[in-house]
Amino acid sequence: MAQLGLVGLGKMGFNMRERLRAAGHEVVGYDRNAEVSDVASLQELVSALSAPRTVWVMVPAGEPTRQTIAELAELLAEGDLVIDGGNSRYTDDARNAELLGRHGVSYLDVGVSGGVWGKENGYGLMVGGDKADVERAMPFFDALRPEGPREESFAHAGGVGAGHYAKMVHNGIEYGLMQAYAEGFELLDASKVVENVPAVIKAWQRGTVVRSWLLELLVNALEEDPELADLEGYVEDSGEGRWTVEEAINNAVPAPVISAALFARFASRQEDSPAMRAVAALREQFGGHAVKTKKVSG
């Protein structure tokens, strides 16, 4: 049994705490929501841990994570270890590691995949940092990942930053996969030939080359709402899709599928697309094609 401090008990962090405890580890959790927190402050969390301490951070990427790590740098001591398991941009990792390093505190960045199903199914883990620090944290990684060969759900991807870089690309691929399933669903739904769209998609789960866990989740959604009529077609992006496209540009790597999936999410947020209005106007101008005009009251 090992001891871990866990900062951030949201959708992911809360379930991770439960999975780690089920594996026999002692977990002290801190969250601003007092209803789920074990302690009242970061100071109290650090005081509750025995040296050398390991603290895993699961708070929103960006300033919340940077601020949390800056606070921990002042509270922890030489020999301690901080793990950032959130969706931080990989470029933040070197700065976090340098800040903690000035206090003698080690740093690992971990890309965590598994979502709200991770408590039951386990999490895929991609880790960046020093090999000795990875080995030190391995009891926690083994408790969090799914059962089976370690190499099928865990990777020491490289030095600091490599874990979050790997997770960034993972999420970019996820964008493309989801968009392909979504477009296939729309085409089936729009056709006059296929009469039972949910049944077709459900039948893809075994024996076909497009089977995946994402497909299973789409089947679950269609079983609850066969036409997905209760949902609005508005989709946010977490940032990692954007970062993946930026890295593709920086490295001159063609990534048309991931790029298109990202831009499709942008399009989903436009109730009345200015670009499509311009296309309609051009079609009317050069070809005399019919257009729909807005009704103006008064």
From TrEMBL:
Recorded superkingdom: Bacteria
GO molecular function: NADP binding; phosphogluconate dehydrogenase (decarboxylating) activity
Annotated InterPro entries: 6-PGluconate_DH-like_C_sf, 6DGDH_YqeC, 6PGD_dom2, 6PGDH_C, 6PGDH_NADP-bd, NAD(P)-bd_dom_sf, Pgluconate_DH
Gene3D superfamilies linked: N-(1-d-carboxylethyl)-l-norvaline Dehydrogenase, domain 2, NAD(P)-binding Rossmann-like Domain
Any Pfam family the entry gives: NAD_binding_2
GO biological process, one term: pentose-phosphate shunt
Keyword Oxidoreductase appears in the UniProt entry: yes
Domain 6-phosphogluconate dehydrogenase C-terminal positions: 163-297
Keywords: Gluconate utilization, Oxidoreductase
Family listed: Belongs to the 6-phosphogluconate dehydrogenase family.
The protein's name: 6-phosphogluconate dehydrogenase, decarboxylating
